[in-house]
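FORM 12-B: Structure-to-Sequence Request
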């Protein structure tokens, strides 16, 4: 069988622990036998980040900018415990995802992989709900303090060009707590563009929610900038038959619960933090959650939403065969290959990505799955737990036969 050709390389960002083991297995069993794979490889494994003083992460992000499409394996973000585990680390390196996100100025979109055998907790959800979380500012970059006396708190802005604004926050007659939060026009605009771009790419409606009835000026700015940016995309939305829909966050929550799914829900930073956990839990499993970082220029970086699955890795090191779910990492590869195929006009490559996903979904629907999913299947559905290698072999067999 002739392998599928590629023209532009995919930026491949390897990672750590169990997901690094899965990464190699997925390539060997599901991709290399079928695709004449072209990648520009960056090793984002913790020790190599340390050796390069984290330059490799920056280089990988710049390569993503250059080529437009990247696929990333989960990576360790070091903390104090990791510094003890890896004594050779010379610094507590920053989160690679944070570094890449700030270089690409991107927004993260998270969507569940849905299968027939596992029904969402919300029974009317039929299609995935994608959450886009704004990842800058608001309460996450706020200053706060406590005061003990009666008094007045004011907020003042001094522009470098002489603009000056001041407002009384509140006068209090006893101890109080205060918080000052901000966002920037540019960050909100990038977020809006990434959302509209992703809606066009995936042909899904876009919902956006804030609380602009209460935060009239603050959230009002978000609403205004989204409306302004929408004008750049309106024609494309109309041509594709998709819609942009703004509503209040509480109305959005009620509508989401009653909906069938199948749209993107853009949320402010805090709302996205909370709602993405709610939505992903209701859909089933973190191991079935995909994640894609999209820049306002349309650069995409695909990955799994979960981490490096440390506990499984230590069992693997002891020689055990682990039943770690590779689905989200496989879908990171298929997402990236499909995108590459679309950008380069290679329908065979895009079609391969679809067949790869279908082979994996068929494997699950045939009841062959990793341990984490077995407990989630509907009553009456016959499922058997296999280890990761056996799951990949079964998916590969279906893919070769398809
Ligand atoms: P995690 O790796 O997502 O794993 C947490 C637990 O969830 C696992 O112990 C496992 O439960 C279950 N799980 C997650 N993915 C699974 C899969 N594919 N198959 C089966 N079970 C799965 O989170 P963590 O343990 O908090 O973090 C480990 C490391 O990952 C940390 O160093 C962190 O910095 C890093 N991390 C990286 C990213 C990223 O690169 N995007 C994201 C998050 C965390 P059981 O053990 O009960 O089976
Ligand atoms: Mg959270």
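FORM 12-B RESPONSE
SEQUENCE OUT:
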């Amino acid at each position: 069988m002739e392998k599928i050709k590629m023209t532009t390389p995919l930026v491949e960002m390897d990672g750590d622990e169990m997901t690094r083991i899965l990464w190699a297995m997925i390539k060997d069993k599901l991709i290399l036998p079928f695709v004449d794979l072209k990648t520009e490889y960056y090793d984002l494994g913790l020790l190599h980040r340390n050796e390069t003083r984290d330059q490799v992460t920056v280089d990988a992000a710049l390569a993503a900018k250059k080529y437009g499409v990247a696929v990333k394996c989960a990576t360790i973000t070091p903390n104090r415990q990791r510094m003890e585990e890896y004594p050779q680390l010379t610094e507590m390196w920053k989160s690679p995802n944070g570094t890449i996100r700030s270089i690409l100025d991107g927004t993260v979109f998270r969507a569940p992989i849905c299968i027939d055998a596992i029904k969402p907790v919300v029974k009317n959800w039929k299609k995935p709900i994608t959450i886009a979380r704004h990842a800058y500012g608001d309460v996450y970059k706020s200053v706060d303090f406590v005061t003990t006396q009666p008094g007045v708190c004011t907020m003042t802005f001094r522009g470098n060009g002489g603009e000056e604004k001041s407002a009384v926050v509140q006068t209090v007659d006893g101890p109080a707590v205060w918080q000052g939060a901000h966002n920037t026009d540019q960050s909100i605009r990038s977020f809006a563009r990434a959302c509209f771009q992703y809606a066009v790419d995936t042909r899904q409606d876009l919902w956006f929610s804030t609380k602009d009835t209460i935060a009239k000026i603050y959230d009002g700015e978000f609403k205004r900038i989204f409306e302004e940016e929408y004008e750049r995309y309106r024609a494309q939305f109309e041509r594709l038959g998709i819609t942009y829909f703004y509503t209040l966050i509480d109305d959005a929550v009620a509508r989401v619960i009653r909906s069938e799914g199948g749209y993107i829900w853009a949320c402010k930073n805090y709302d996205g933090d909370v709602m993405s956990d709610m939505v992903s839990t209701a859909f089933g499993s973190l191991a079935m959650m995909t994640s894609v970082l999209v820049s306002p220029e349309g650069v995409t970086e695909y990955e799994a939403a979960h981490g490096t699955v440390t506990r499984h890795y230590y069992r693997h090191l002891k020689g055990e065969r682990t039943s770690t779910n590779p689905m989200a990492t496989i879908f990171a590869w298929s997402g990236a290959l499909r995108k590459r195929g679309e950008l380069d006009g290679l329908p065979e490559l895009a079609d391969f990505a679809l067949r790869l996903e279908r082979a994996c979904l068929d494997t699950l629907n045939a009841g062959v799955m990793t341990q984490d999913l077995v407990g989630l299947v509907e009553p009456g559905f016959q499922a058997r737990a296999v280890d990761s290698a056996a799951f990949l072999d079964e998916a590969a067999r279906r893919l070769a036969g398809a």
